[in-house]
Amino acid sequence: MHTGEKPFVYETCVKEPFVCETCGYAHSAKRNLKRHERMHIDEKNTPLSSTYKYGDLADVAGLLDISRIHSGEKPFVCETCGKAFSDKGYLRRHTKMHTGVKPYVCETCGKAFSAKCHLQGHERVHTGEKPFVCETCGKAFSVKGNLQIHERVHTGEKPFVCETCGKAFPVKGSLHVHERVHTGEKPFVCEICGKAFSNRNELTRHERMHTGEKPFICETCGKAFSFSCSLSRHERIHTNEKPFVCETCGKAFSNTGSRNRHVKMHICKPLFV
After folding, report:
1. Residue 179 — φ and ψ, nearest 5°?
2. Which part of the chain is the C2H2-type domain (predicted)?
C-alpha cells in the first residue's frame, strides 16, 4: 500500500486490445470500452480520480471488483426482491426503490426519483439530449439502458423466454409485462380514477390525461405533447418525412393512420366503373 506496488494484473485485460485507462477493464470491441468508460464519470460529469492504470490493480479487493466485470459474478443480492449486483454501490442504489424514498426531484416537472442517475436520465426528456448513440444505425437515446435494449434489434438477441407460451423477448421487463397476459395481473393503479394497468408505462401515460402534463416539446414550433410518439409524428410536419409507404402504389405518408386509410382504397375498389 505504501510502496505503490501493483502486483495484481487481470489477465483478460492484458489480452484485449481496448483498455480503460482508469481501471484497466479491457474488451475486444471498442464500443464496449466506451460504454464501460461512462461508469467512471461522476455526477458533475468529470472523470473520477483513480490510481488504476492499464490493468494494474493496487490490491486484491480491486482485482476482485474488476474480475466481476469479466466473470459476470454478482455476489450482492437484494433481500427484498432477489436481484443481484456485481457492485455493493449498485445494490445500495437499487434498495431505495423498495423504501419508496425519492429525494431527487426534477425542477422542470416535479417528478421524483430514488437515484440521481435516474433523475439525470429523466431530465433529458426535457432537454432533448441523447448522448447514447447506436454505432450500427446511428439512432440516439437519452438513457444508456435504452441503447443496450435497442442494440438487440440488430443482433436479434432475445434471451428472456416465457415459460407459458415460449415467446421470447430482448429485455426482462418486457417478459414480465407479457406474463401478465397469462395471469391477468394489473398491479399499476391510477390513484385518481382507479383504472389498473399491466405495466408502469401505460399508467404513466394514462396519468397525463389527469395532470395535463406535456413534457415533449417540438424544437421547431414549441408545441408540446403528452407522448413522445405524438411529438415524433408532429415533427414530420416540419421535416416532410414520409416513412410509411403503400406497397401497392408506392405513395408515401407521414403517419400509419393515413397510410392505412389509403390502403383501403385499393382493397375496396368498386365492382362497377
Report:
1. -60, -25
2. 18-45, 76-103, 104-131, 132-159, 160-187, 188-215, 216-243, 244-266
